[in-house]
């Protein structure tokens, strides 16, 4: 199992929790900021070089915001776009060919009920989740 998270403390806590549940579980954990395209590409290169067979990809990372769009900070909007849309699409793009070649695998893209209708105070979040649902 390969785990990624932006914060090392959360990554370590999850790894410990999973090891308690199953001490024989083989875990690889990597700190990864999904907003950083170069870092994401290096991670995918590492996956290729490590020759780990990815059976299941769970695109569960997500970022949200609340408030009128006009009051949003661009940094937050851009982060939502990078994590909720770009990183999910890029990870799928990089992992899917090996799954297809192996003729097995599954990808779970986690969306939200917010994807089903426009939300005035969560416009970008709802739009990114609509992308995930459609994708």
Entry keywords:
135 residues; mainly alpha; Rossmann fold; 4 helices; 4 strands; 51% helix; globular
Task: Summarize the structure in short.
The protein is 51% helix and 12% strand. The protein is built from four helices and four strands, in the order βαβαβαβα.
Notes on the structure:
The protein is mainly alpha-helical. Helix 1 links the parallel strand 1 and strand 2. The radius of gyration is 16 Å and the shape is globular. It has a domain of 80 residues: 3-Layer(aba) Sandwich (Rossmann fold), CATH 3.40.50.720. The protein contains four helices and four strands; from the N terminus they run βαβαβαβα. Helices cover 51% and strands 12% of the residues. The two termini are 25 Å apart. The mean pLDDT is 94. The strands form two sheets. The protein has a two-stranded parallel sheet. The longest helix has 29 residues. Helix 2 runs parallel beside helix 3 and helix 3 runs parallel beside helix 4.
């Amino acid at each position: 199992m390969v785990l990624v998270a932006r914060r090392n403390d959360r990554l370590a806590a999850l790894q410990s929790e999973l090891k308690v549940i199953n001490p024989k579980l083989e875990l690889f954990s990597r700190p990864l900021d999904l907003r950083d395209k170069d870092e994401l590409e290096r991670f995918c290169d590492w996956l290729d070089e490590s020759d780990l067979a990815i059976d299941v990809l769970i695109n569960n990372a997500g970022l949200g915001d609340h408030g009128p769009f006009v009051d949003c900070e661009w940094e937050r909007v851009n982060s939502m776009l990078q994590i909720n849309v770009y990183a999910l699409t890029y990870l799928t793009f990089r992992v899917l060919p090996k799954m297809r070649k192996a003729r097995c695998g599954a990808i779970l893209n986690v969306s939200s009920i917010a994807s089903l209708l426009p939300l005035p105070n969560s416009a970008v979040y709802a739009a990114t989740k609509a992308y995930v649902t459609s994708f």
